[in-house]
Each structure stands twice: as structure tokens, then as C-alpha cells.
Amino acid sequence: MNPQQSTAAGTAHDEAVDEARGEIVRVGTTLFARGYVHASAGNISARVGDRHLITPTDAALGFLDPGRLALVDARGEQIAGDRASKTLTLHRRICSADPAARFVVHTHSTHLVALTLAGVWSDDDVLPPLTPYYVMKVGHVPLIPYHRPGDPRVADLVTALIADRAASRTPIRAVLLDRLGPVVWGPDAATALAVLEELEETARLWLLTDRRPEPLPDHALEELRSTFNAAW
Questions:
Q1: What is the rounded end-to-end Cα distance, in angstroms, of the chain?
Q2: Taking the model in full, what pTM does it have?
């Protein structure tokens, strides 16, 4: 690569990082405005090539400064910004385990944390398949047993589940951390947000109805599989 090509590649990479900074700030702002995050709970990351941007530790997601987002290299070593969130390892390993994962969001969303306190439907599926859009847009969401925030063992559990569910052709887009809330991911910010929103609102519906509704029947699930290729 000649110097001119090298400069052009570096500029393109910097532009991609700047674009990702803007996306993270936008997502943090909308999550805060809609009550999905509070105080300094939660974190957001984006994979840019072999680097990762992530919100700093103890950052308030509704008031992010793009210049202070933590940037880490391919080895996970920080090269810019404030100190990275304690969940950096989990975010990076999700992206390594699922090649389609480029944007990761973790919140302490009220109804999903409440669900872990009240009792999930099952450890393999924290919510029953109540609505067609939950089945199509979210899919299976396993519960991760409680570990302290930032515990690296959580990354081992999540990546093992990603591999197992991919092998069974029911890939997952999210997990629920006991007492800590959801972690969702997708190829871009819009997709990850859509998963988070549908997941939180379905938890809200189930809790509002005292966890009484029956799941969709088998024939309805089969119709969603055959018509929309739902991974359920």
C-alpha cells in the first residue's frame, strides 16, 4: 500500500469511528429520554473493524460526550477516551462469538429487571412466546445467573449460549442478566434497539397481566416459522 492509499484507508477508518461515536450518543440519548436507562446504569458499544468503542465506566447514557467514549484496539487495550466500561470483555466476546454482532446494548430496563425478581418463565426462555412480533423480532432469551457487574465469567456463559443456539439453528439476539437487565446485540444500532424495545415491552405486558397469558399455540409458532423464518 503506497502512502496515499494508506492515508485514505486511515481517513476512512477514522470516519467510521466518528460515525459510531455519533450512533452511540444518539442511542444513549433516546434510551434515557424514554426511561430505558437511569443514572449511570448500562453501557453501549460498537465494533468498528477490529476496534471497539464503548461508553466509559459510570457514564450517564443520556449525557454522553462523543470525545470521551473509550476506544480499544484489537487486543482490548485502550487507546483513547475515558476508562472503558467494566463490561468491555462481555461486549467484545459477544462480537467475536457472533460475526453479525456489531452493536451491543446493556440496560437495567425496569420491567426486565423486575421480571428476574418476580421469576422468569424459564431459564431457557425468560418470557413465553406471547406475541408474533416477540417471536419474530426477539426470539429465545436465556437467563444468565447472577454474577457481580463486570464478572468475566458472564462472557463465558453468554458466548457458550451463542454457540449452542447457533448450532441448533435458533440463534439468540439477547440474554437477560439476573438482577442486572438485558444485553442485546445486532448488526447495527437500529436492529439492536428494536430487539431491546420488543423485549422490554413484552416483559411489561406479561407483568401487567400478572403472568397469566398462555403462550402462542404450536400451530401459530409453526406458521411464524414457515412464513417469516422465525427462529423459534
A1: 47
A2: 0.92
In whole angstroms, give the CA distance from residue 90 to residue 98. 12
CA gap 86, 188 in Å, rounded:
22
Amino acid at 221: L
Write out the DSSP string of 158-211.
HHHHHHHHHHTT---SEEEETTTEEEEEESSHHHHHHHHHHHHHHHHHHHHTTT
| Known active-site residue 133 | yes
Which residue of the set 36, 133, 134, 146 is catalytic?
133
Tens digit of each residue's pLDDT (9 = 90 or more) over 135-154: 999 999 999 999 999 999 99
Place of cell 423480532: 137
Q: Is 72 helix (H, G, I), strand (E, B) or coil?
A: strand
Distance CA 123, CA 126 (A): 6
**Cβ contact 53:26 at 8 Å:** no
pLDDT digit string, tens, across residues 102-136: 999 999 999 999 999 999 999 999 999 999 999 99
Distance, in Å, from the CA atom of 225 to the CA atom of 210, rounded to the nearest integer, reads 28
Between 6-15, 77-86, 110-119, the lowest mean confidence (pLDDT) is in: 6-15
The answer to whether the Cα torsion of 31, 77, 99, 141 is positive or negative is negative
Q: pLDDT at position 14, please? A: 86
Spatial distance between the Cα atoms of 7 and 1, rounded to a whole number of angstroms = 10
Residue 129: CB partners within 8 Å, gap ≥ 6?
A: 135, 215, 216, 221, 232
Q: Is the pLDDT reported for residue 9 higher than 70?
A: no
